[in-house]
Design goal:
The structure holds two protein chains of two kinds.
Chain A (H helix, E strand, L loop, with lengths): L2 H15 L17 H8 L2 H9 L1 H17 L20 H13 L8
Helix pairs in contact in A: 1-4, 3-4
Chain B lengths: L9 H28 L5 H7 L2 H15 L5 H19 L2 H7 L3 H7 L5 H11 L4 E2 H7 L6 H14 L2 E5 L5 E5 L2 H18 L3
Antiparallel strand pairs in B: 1-3, 2-3
The chains are: A mainly alpha, B mainly alpha.
Chain lengths: 112, 198
């Protein structure tokens, strides 16, 4: 796993496990990020979203990542990329999506 | 539906087989034509274009165009219909399981007081434009947000979507028309084939 993948994973974990605290968003001043961290965040739309929605959790995740990196500086082999998810398995979803579009256009839903 | 023996009448059976063949031909020819239309012939891009998720994206854009969803008012109705559907789904645990969706994921997919105005304002400024996170919301029922991002990136490389940066860090997605036109042509030809069978 590359450093950026590790950071993404930690950030996703931190944000998902602390999402219940979202209602306290804005109760503190926003954290600061180094230029390197800012460059990393800009490379991934999920990190951009995390920086906007949960900046302190992102700060904590980056600090944790930094601690891990310092304690284990050995270079690791990057993980192979995961295959893309082919899509949801159910046949109901595509049918429902067509019904939503039809309803938005003023039509009535088709009976099953 | 009556329980007639669907294998009893040979002529009916041949017609049925032709319909299923047309269904399969439709999906095959759509993918082939999309791959041929891609300006980037890199195998990685073509692999993404062959995914079911790419077909779903094309069907969504075709639906928008075919249903004439083109004004701010239309998009507001779409957001409301989407929210109503998602809300109903959160009360149907069995269906959520079938669709592979969690309640948290569904709540994230709803348009809120923050994201709904953004959807409408972006559309007002440029009809047809949807920011990537809102596009993923609209497609929640058929793919994950990450799959949506990957498919959108591949379609942008192929020349089927424009993917523009905004000053807010969001990505603005606009169709160039290839996805919906290709799907529409394949659909029309398939319908004519099926009509010719009866």
């Amino acid at each position: 796993m590359t450093p950026s993948q590790t950071a993404s994973l930690l950030i996703a974990l931190a944000v998902s496990t602390t999402a219940v605290l979202a209602d306290v968003k804005g109760s503190r001043n926003p954290p600061t990020f180094t230029p390197e961290e800012t460059a990393l965040i800009k490379r991934d739309s999920r990190l951009v979203a995390a920086a906007q929605e949960h900046p302190w959790h992102l700060r904590c995740a980056l600090d944790t990542w930094d601690e891990i990196r310092r304690s284990a500086p050995a270079k690791r082999e990057p993980c192979p990329p995961l295959p893309p998810e082919p899509g949801r398995a159910s046949t109901e979803g595509p049918f429902d999506l067509l019904q939503i579009l039809k309803e938005a256009a003023g039509g009535s839903a088709t009976k099953r | 539906m009556s329980h007639e023996d669907v294998f009893a009448d040979r002529a009916q059976l041949v017609a049925d087989l032709n319909v299923i063949e047309t269904f399969r031909w439709y999906r095959m020819i759509f993918t082939e034509r999309l791959a041929a239309a891609s300006r980037d012939q890199d195998e990685g891009i073509l692999e993404m274009l062959r995914l079911e998720a790419t077909y779903q994206l094309a069907e969504f854009y075709y639906g928008l165009k075919a249903h004439g969803i083109d004004t701010e008012n239309d998009v507001e109705k779409l957001a409301d219909a989407h929210n109503d559907y998602i809300e109903g789904l959160t009360n149907d645990p069995a269906k959520m399981r079938r669709l592979g969706l969690s309640k948290d994921r569904l709540l994230d997919a709803m348009f809120t007081a923050d994201t709904r105005p953004r959807l409408v304002e972006i559309w007002r400024q440029q009809p047809g434009a949807i920011d990537q996170s809102n596009l993923a919301r609209l497609l929640t029922v058929v793919m994950s947000a990450e799959t949506c991002r990957k498919v959108v990136v591949a379609c942008a490389e192929a020349g089927f979507l424009e993917r523009k940066d905004t000053i807010y860090g969001a990505k603005l997605i606009v169709s160039t028309g290839v996805l919906e036109r290709t799907l529409g042509e394949c659909l029309r030809q398939s319908r004519h084939r099926i009509a010719g069978l009866s």
